[in-house]
Amino acid sequence: MRALYLVLGTIFGFVLSRSGAADYNYIQGMFLFENFQLYGIIGTAVVLTAPGLWLVQRRGRTALGAPVRVELKPMTRGTVVGSLLFGVGWSIAGMCPGPILVNIGEGKIYALAALAGALAGAGVFGTLYSRLQSPLRLPPLEVTAPGKARVRSVRL
Known about the structure:
By secondary structure, the chain is mostly helical. The radius of gyration is 18 Å and the shape is globular. Helix content is 65%, strand content 6%. It has one domain. Helix 1 (2-19) crosses helix 5 (97-105), helix 4 packs antiparallel against helix 6 and helix 5 (97-105) packs antiparallel against helix 6. It has a two-stranded antiparallel sheet.
């Protein structure tokens, strides 16, 4: 199964690279409303993915037969703050997590700084989660094993 994931990830990275979705100038052009190619790519992704997700939800099982539960996540202040931080970081760095790896694969050294920033931000958030939980109305963590925690999903 891991080989399949590796192949699919490689194909996804190749498509991101060839489409321009990992190119700093295209991303800046999108955010400055000067280049609309990436809006088309994002729209195409939504149009192609939405029917597949609908079918998976309706069928209730993956192609391999595993049960699927898609739960509605609650909207919190943390969602809004996180979305704003993600958008600002995407605009400044010119890449989000997928394209960071694509740019590293293309040999663009500056992408290592973006990767370091993303990992540092995730680490800081994880460290400060308990302090941010109340003001941002974040869901409680559920401890599953020593040293491992996960966010408990909340059904609406």
